[in-house]
TrEMBL record:
<dbReference type="InterPro" id="IPR010918">
    <property type="entry name" value="PurM-like_C_dom"/>
</dbReference>
<dbReference type="InterPro" id="IPR036921">
    <property type="entry name" value="PurM-like_N_sf"/>
</dbReference>
<comment type="similarity">
    <text>Belongs to the AIR synthase family.</text>
</comment>
<keyword id="KW-0067">ATP-binding</keyword>
<dbReference type="InterPro" id="IPR004733">
    <property type="entry name" value="PurM_cligase"/>
</dbReference>
<dbReference type="Pfam" id="PF02769">
    <property type="entry name" value="AIRS_C"/>
</dbReference>
<keyword id="KW-0547">Nucleotide-binding</keyword>
<comment type="pathway">
    <text>Purine metabolism; IMP biosynthesis via de novo pathway; 5-amino-1-(5-phospho-D-ribosyl)imidazole from N(2)-formyl-N(1)-(5-phospho-D-ribosyl)glycinamide: step 2/2.</text>
</comment>
<keyword id="KW-0658">Purine biosynthesis</keyword>
<keyword id="KW-0963">Cytoplasm</keyword>
<dbReference type="InterPro" id="IPR016188">
    <property type="entry name" value="PurM-like_N"/>
</dbReference>
<dbReference type="Pfam" id="PF00586">
    <property type="entry name" value="AIRS"/>
</dbReference>
<keyword id="KW-0436">Ligase</keyword>
<feature type="domain" description="PurM-like C-terminal">
    <location>
        <begin position="182"/>
        <end position="342"/>
    </location>
</feature>
<feature type="domain" description="PurM-like N-terminal">
    <location>
        <begin position="63"/>
        <end position="169"/>
    </location>
</feature>
<protein>
    <recommendedName>
        <fullName>Phosphoribosylformylglycinamidine cyclo-ligase</fullName>
        <ecNumber>6.3.3.1</ecNumber>
    </recommendedName>
</protein>
<dbReference type="InterPro" id="IPR036676">
    <property type="entry name" value="PurM-like_C_sf"/>
</dbReference>
Amino acid sequence: MTEDSAAQGTTYASAGVDVEAGDRAVELMKAAVSATHGPNVVGDFGGFAGLFDVSMLKDYERPQLAASTDGVGTKVAIAQALDIHHTIGFDLVGMVVDDIVVCGATPLIMTDYIACGRVVPERIADIVRGIAEACASAGVALVGGETAEHPGLLGVDEYDVAGAATGVVEASRVLGAHRVSAGDVLVGLPSSGLHSNGYSLVRRIIADAGWGLDREVPEFGRTLGEEILVPTTVYSGPLLELLAAQPDAVHAMSHVTGGGLSANIARVLPQGLLATMCRSTWTVPAVFDVLGELGSVPRIDRERTWNLGVGMVLVVDRESVDAVLAAVDGAWVLGEVTADDRALAGDEYYVQGAKGVDGGAAILLD
């Protein structure tokens, strides 16, 4: 410690927190956040809490709020290594908001939280700009957030992001297992790639193989880093349009995140029913095959970790399948729901119940 610093005493800045940098970051993100605000957002940007006028709830017979919170996981390490930060916001919004839409709810508001080792205003603004753009695509207002500087806990160029959202649905329109019956059809929606799950496995594979993020991969037509940073698809917009246009077509939805396809489908089926999905109905994107082969990852582990190209599954009334396929780009028939006679229960790919839900079962077949 120099004589001058001793004379000044210990300040917040000398402890590693730059309040002025935080203020600059807020100014840089202000326009992007405000662009998500419609007439229901009350008050100016920067309040202690975001206010949202919910007078429209008076038109509901029995409104039910839907809430979700999530993060992006270790995908942020890829963004940090590449110094590309504006896409991670789409990952965050997709992980949070699409968990609300699956129950039939319309997302209304979202907040975000960014913890970092050091506030770099341009970096924070890039992250929030991505969050705001994704919120706009989902029709949700970004009404608040927090950026916290944690020197000594996180490295100077490290950060983590999390978010929470709230939506609303009429009680009589809630989607879920109570609507599903044998004979329903499973419709798959394509993912944009890895989305935001299984990155601990991804990072371990490429580290063990000694691959750099700048490695050109012929199967991808771009670098490894560019491929695995592709942002999560945000499904909310087109799915809400589908529900508005065909309110009785969809009985349940499953957002394929951690745990893979079968585990997430099993969550939205009632006991006694089985979702049978056929691998032959879609082509697994190259990123999953390349990484799986590079790491000699067993097929069962791939299918219980990654989405393998299926980002969302709709459980659809059989009479409405053609209309749903026509309404949603890229959709295809993935399988069907039948009574579960337990004949396949001994198969290692058979999954019954998941994530604490003692529901139906699901299996992937060739």
